[in-house]
Amino acid sequence: AGAYSNMDYVKDRVLFHEKVSRALCDLLADPQTSGGLLAAVPKSEAAELLKQLQDTTQWAQIIGEVTDQKAKAIYVEE
Questions:
Q1: Are 50 and 62 in contact (CB under 8 A)?
Q2: How many CA within 13 A on the CB side of residue 12?
Q3: What pLDDT is stored for residue 52 in this prediction?
Q4: Residue 55: CB partners within 8 Å, gap ≥ 6?
Q5: What are the C-alpha distances in Å from 5 to residues 8, 43, 44?
Q6: For the chain, how far is it from start to end, CA to CA, in angstroms?
Q7: What is the pLDDT of residue 34?
Q8: Rounded to an integer, what distance in angstroms lies between the CA atom of residue 73 and that of residue 49?
Q9: pLDDT tens-place string over residues 1-56
Q10: pLDDT at residue 76 above 70?
Q11: What pLDDT does residue 51 have?
């Protein structure tokens, strides 16, 4: 129920591309994934940080970028 509560909370601020699977939508709202998963760094430092993180964990990835404000706060694409 927590995932659906989370999705309901952000539904007006998130736009999911039509090709995004239901499984990915559910994963992004999963309450078990809360905390410690996201870091925002200057674009010029991202590649070096990613390299350092990947030396210790296989899970580190660049997942998006901060852009000028648009109609929604978050856009999710595959």
A1: yes
A2: 1
A3: 93
A4: none
A5: 5, 32, 36
A6: 25
A7: 52
A8: 25
A9: 888 898 888 888 888 888 888 888 888 888 875 555 678 899 999 999 999 999 98
A10: yes
A11: 94
Buried b / exposed e over 26-39, threshold 16 CB at 10 Å, is eebbeeeeeeeeee
Q: What is the pTM of this model?
A: 0.51
- pLDDT over threshold 90, residue 68: no
Residues in a beta bridge with 74:
14
The letter for the amino acid at 47 is A
Q: Name the residue type at position 43.
A: K
Residue 28 amino acid letter: L
Q: What is the DSSP string of the chain?
A: -HHHHHHHHHTTTEEE-TTS-HHHHHHHH-GGG-SS------HHHHHHHHHHHHTT-TT--------S--SSSEEE--
